[in-house]
Design brief:
With 314 residues, this protein is of the alpha+beta class. The protein is built from 4 helices and 21 strands.
Length: 314
């Protein structure tokens, strides 16, 4: 048994292990999964001197309350998160985007995200997790990944295989920017929709509904009219594709999405906007803006360069 471990006092609402996800499995019905907000995932690992593809704890809205036992270890939380660290009789208010050193008996209480959805807790070491298809990422809809594909639970113990020897304290100044205009490319069934429906899609506001999770984001707003067929033969889906079912309300496929679907696809979210899209809480307003494939590729390359620049500052 490991002498370094975490005990889950409170698991939070939707707390899972995530890493970079799974490649090349769509053909057997396995989605990519992985951290929803990739930039915040990478920064969390860099702050504690982990490999950038290491497993972290992802939480949504309310995070876990954890008690740590073992030798000194670094931890860091990224996102827009309210949390505290209890060290013996002293409780400190934590700051995101900086590492802290915790030791035997210390507690991390992740109270909530702040006007966002996902946050990340990284520990400076290697969690003892089961890997499936070279990933620990949990998909609770299919019970795939570590922890038997389930969310973390109260009373659970998480062991660490090792602790990083480099315990330098690190910090970065970073602000999570909000976004309203989501850039999209035309979907394969774009011409299924009336001219008025297309105009509505690009010019009107939609609201993020409460029926949103790691699998998909349902939107509410003016109905998008389909003039051909509200159902099609099931086709392959990708992360970010926007389907429009018969009720006319768009659904954006997210990281744990099904790999096939039979609703017409009006658009696809540009990858550059995905990290900020998934952080939009229910009630947020969205407007779509059309861009072409070439511009989407250029924007994503710039976003990745910006991310690498941020990591190099840590």
């Amino acid at each position: 048994m490991s002498s370094n471990y975490l005990d889950i006092i409170r698991p939070g609402i939707n707390t899972t292990f995530q890493d970079k996800g799974r490649d090349h499995l769509y053909h057997i019905g396995i989605p990519f999964s992985g951290a929803m907000d990739n930039r915040n995932y990478l920064i969390a690992n860099k702050l504690v001197n982990n490999n950038l593809d290491s497993a972290v704890i992802e939480f949504a809205y309310q995070g876990p309350h954890i008690k740590y036992s073992g030798e000194k270890i670094n931890c860091a939380i990224t996102g827009d998160v309210i949390f505290s660290i209890k060290k013996k009789d002293n409780e400190i208010e934590g700051n995101c985007y900086q590492s802290y050193q915790i030791e035997n008996g210390d507690e991390i209480n992740i109270i909530s995200t702040n006007k966002s959805v996902y946050g990340y807790l990284a520990l400076g070491g290697e969690l003892d997790l089961k890997f499936q298809w070279n990933s620990c990422s949990i998909n609770t809809k299919a019970n795939i990944g570590s922890n038997d594909g389930k969310k973390l639970d109260v009373g659970q113990r998480i062991n660490l295989k090792k602790i990083n020897s480099n315990k330098d304290i690190k910090k970065i100044n970073y602000n999570n920017t909000k976004i309203e205009n989501i850039r999209v490319m035309r979907g394969t069934n774009f011409d299924y929709f009336s001219e008025q429906g297309k105009q509505i899609f690009y010019e009107k506001e939609f609201i993020v509904s409460k029926l949103s999770d790691r699998m998909g984001m349902r939107l509410e707003g003016p109905k998008i009219e389909n003039i051909v067929n509200t159902n099609i033969k099931s086709e392959g889906l990708i992360k970010g594709v926007i389907q429009v079912p018969a009720d006319g309300n768009p659904i954006i496929m997210l990281s744990d999405h099904g790999t096939v679907g039979g609703y017409p696809k009006i658009g696809v979210v540009a990858s550059v906007d995905y990290d900020r899209l998934v952080q939009m809480v229910p009630g947020s307003k969205i407007k779509f803006k059309e861009i072409n494939l070439s511009d989407a590729e250029t924007l994503f390359k710039l976003y990745e360069m910006e991310t690498q620049n941020l990591l190099s500052q840590i």
